[in-house]
Amino acid sequence: MILAACAAMLGVMTPTASAAPNVKVTVTVDRIKVLRSSEEGACGSIDWYAKVFINGVAFNNEDSPSQDELEGQGDISPGWEFSTEVDVATLDQSSGVAKFPVTIEVWDEDGGFCLGDDQYDASQAVGRGINFQVAASPCRVFRGSSTGAPCGSGYIDSGTAEDAAEVTYSVAVDDPASAPGLRIRCTSDPVAPTIGTPVTVTATALDGAMMPTIVADELQIVAARNRSTDSVRYPLADHKVSGVNSTSVTFTPTEGGDLVYGCRLREGTTGLFTGWRRVDTNPGTSAEPRPISYTGPRASRIDIVFVADRDTYTSSRDPRFLDDVRRVVETSYYGFNDFLANQDKFNFWIARAQGRADDANDGDCDHDLPAGWDDTFAFADAGAILHRKNQRDCALRGDRIFSGVVDTAVRSDALQVITHESGHQPFGLADEYPPDGGYFQQDVAPNVYEDMAGCIADAPALGREATACRRWERPTDWWPDPDWFSSEPAPNDVMYNNTGPANAADIRRYVLIFGDCASAKC
Length: 522
Known about the structure:
By secondary structure, this protein is an alpha+beta fold. The protein has 8 helices and 28 strands.
C-alpha cells in the first residue's frame, strides 16, 4: 500500500528529471516467488536475496536484517529498494535516447555442505538474470520492445529452468535529494498533523554550507491525501513559485487517510526532490509506532523513533512533545548537512509508549525503554528519548537508543546534542572528546583508534598527514587501555563538541551506512 501511494503521487506531479545532470534511479524488488526448486529440502528452505546492477553499479543484500527476517519463505514481498545516481551525460545515446542497463538476479543462500549459493532462473531470455534497459527521461523500461513502457510498478518476469522463480519489480527515475552546493529542506508544521488540523509545508533552498543564499528558479510543494478505502489519492496542494528562496503552503486534511507530500527545487539544469513522505494522520491507540515521515521500505531507510520522556511529557500526544519532535527533525536532522543531503534515506516515527531518559549522570546510560522495544520496535535503527531535563545525554549501543535534550534554556547546544548522539546510534561513531567519552574502534571506517599505529595508517585514507593524529588518556583505574587516538580536528568536530561539522572520518562512516541503505541492507 505504501509503495502504491508513492507511485500514484507521480501522477499528481510529473517528475522533471529530464533537465537534471544527475538522476536518482530506484529498482525495487516487490516480490519473489519460487516456481520450481531442486535445492529445497536437501539444502534447507529457501533464503532469498537479490543482486542488482544499475548502470554497472552492483548491489547485494545478502546477510542483511531484512533477508534474515524472511528466511525460509518461498514467496516473499520484501520491497527491497536499490538506488543510485546516474550521470545522464555519460549514457549511451546512439539510439537518440539516453539509456542505461539494469540486471536483477535472485539467489538462494545455502549453508553447510551445499557448496555455495544458487542463482534461480528469473528470465525467459538467455541467462538467469532479468536484463533490460531504462531511458532516463522520460523514464521508460525497455524489456524487448523498441518503444518501451512507462516506468512504474508491476513488471513480472519468470524463469523456465529446473530452479526457477517469478520476480515482480518496479523502476523509478527522479531527481536526487541533493547536489553539489545545493540542498532543499522540506518541513511540515505540525510534524504529526491530524484530520481537521491546518498543515503548513515549507520548502527552502540552501547552498552546500546550509546557508539560504539560493534564489531558486522554481520551488514546488505538492501534497495529497491517500484514502485507503478506495486507493485513490486526492490532491490537497500543488504550489509552485519562481525566483524565491523559500515558500510555504497551508491546507487542511478534512477526511481520513494518510497525508503524502514532497518538495522540489529547480536551479538552472539541476533538479532536486526530497522524496515522498507519508504521514499517518490518525494518532490512534495502537502499540505500533506512528509514521510521521515515511519515505520508503525499512530495509532501505534509517528508521528513527522518537520517544516521549515521561518526566517531561504527559504522553506521546503532548503538544509540547510533538512540537519538540518538529524542531528536532528541522534542526537536528534537516539542519545538519550530511543528514539533509540524505533526507530520502530516513524514516521518522513517534512511539506511542513512553520511556525515561536516565538522569543519574553516573555514566551507566540506564534508560527506561518504551514497552515493547525489543518486539514492536525491533525494526528501529535508533530510538531518541526526547526530554527537557538538565542532564548529560548518552547513547546505549546494545539497545539502539539514546537520550537528547531539546530545551535550549537548559543547554544552548541542545538540538545539536541529538545530532551528536545520532552519530553514535545508528551510525556507530565513537566520542572524540577527552577524557570521559565512549571510546571504541570500529572494524570498518573507524573515527577513533586503540593505538597510534592504527591512526597513522588510516590518516592518508582520510586525506591527512600522520602528524594529525592526537592522543588522549582516559583517567581511570579500571579501564585496561586508557590511551585513545584520532586524527579528526579538535574541537571542531560533531563527535567532539556537538556543534562542529562532520569531518572526514565521520563522513566516511555516514557514507558507509547510507550505502547499506541503498543496497537494502539498513
